[in-house]
Amino acid sequence: MTTLQDTLPDTGPAAPILSNAALLRLAVVAAGLVVAFGIVPAVAPDYWLSSIIIPTVVMGLAGISLNLLQGYAGLVSLGSAAFMSVGVFSAYNLILRVPGLPLPAVLLLSGLIAAAVGVFFGLPALRIRGFYLGASTLGAQFFFPWLFTNYPWFSNDSQSLTISAPRLEFLGYDLQSPLGRYLFVATVTALLIGLAFLVVRSRLGREWMAIRDQETAASVLGIRVARRKLQAYAISSFFLGITGVLWGFAYLGTADAHTYNLDKSFQVLFIVLIGGTATIFGNFLGAAFIVLTPILLDHLVLAANIAYLSDQGAITNLQRVIFGAIIIFILIKEPDGLSAWIRRGAEALRARPKT
After folding, report:
1. CA 108 to chain centre
2. What is the pLDDT of residues 314-349, one digit of tens each?
3. Could you give the residue ranges of the DSSP H alpha helices within the chain?
4. CA 64 to CA 70: how far, in whole Å?
5. Cα distance between residue 145 and residue 259, in whole Å
6. Tens digits of residue pLDDT in 154-185
7. What is the model's pTM?
């Protein structure tokens, strides 16, 4: 007698539900969550949380924001800090002028406002590209400091044009302590990392990469290039707007029009270049380098007693020269960033014959 099982084709052994690579990624994500929400809150002192860990995490998120645009969509922006400033000033005015608005809603609306601004400044991408596109987005970096400086309404008519972080709380929990601010930053960052992975692995992300690799071929294949470009600017600016809120409210505690200056935009750009383009977690390597290297140089200067040999201005300039030289060295030795360096090292270890 022939059964239903006999009529089915023999497909060999059942394929595993998850590949080894997928299992490895899940293990890395789980380990990261354990470290972020278990180990770090338990062992890190308040100084490390406030002065090192929080800025590193926030700047890593800023790198992800720009990497979505530059690394995956192949577009250019030199005004990342401007969109961060839009986010923080939007959040400040939402909290001030819409009492009772919960913190998650403030973050979401601030990101959406920054996204709308990003779409506006991304319109030149429909006609120009490369260096000229970078110059057009640079306009945002000069426009918003002028706007927030000349119109005191954005800072609630403050004489100093400075805004102060409101009291951070959610569902009755006070987030003002270093631990509370860290958990706030870590939670928002984890959610945005998950969103970034979903975007990158979706059809939208694949079409971004097609446009990045060959725009003409992508257009021939039926991809709506103009729409995808504007979506890239919108999503990147959405991330940057929320990042600006975290930087101003959870780290600095205050902000003004010049907090998010051109230097900050270049820091975000260096994070992407050092960590690696078209990567998510590599941005945190770049952020750690940007945040920790100046601190390390300060300690080396104190340890070597160089500060007694010259004035403080010369020492500061020397530190900047050394910092720039290190960046140039890394980009020459590893153009694909530190993440590619680590990835190749791990692959070499796996390929090494076992004894």
Report:
1. 16
2. 667 777 787 788 888 887 887 888 888 887 877 777
3. 4-7, 20-34, 40-43, 46-48, 54-67, 80-97, 103-122, 131-150, 178-200, 203-213, 215-220, 225-245, 262-275, 282-304, 312-333, 338-351
4. 10
5. 9
6. 999 988 889 998 888 888 788 899 999 999 99
7. 0.90
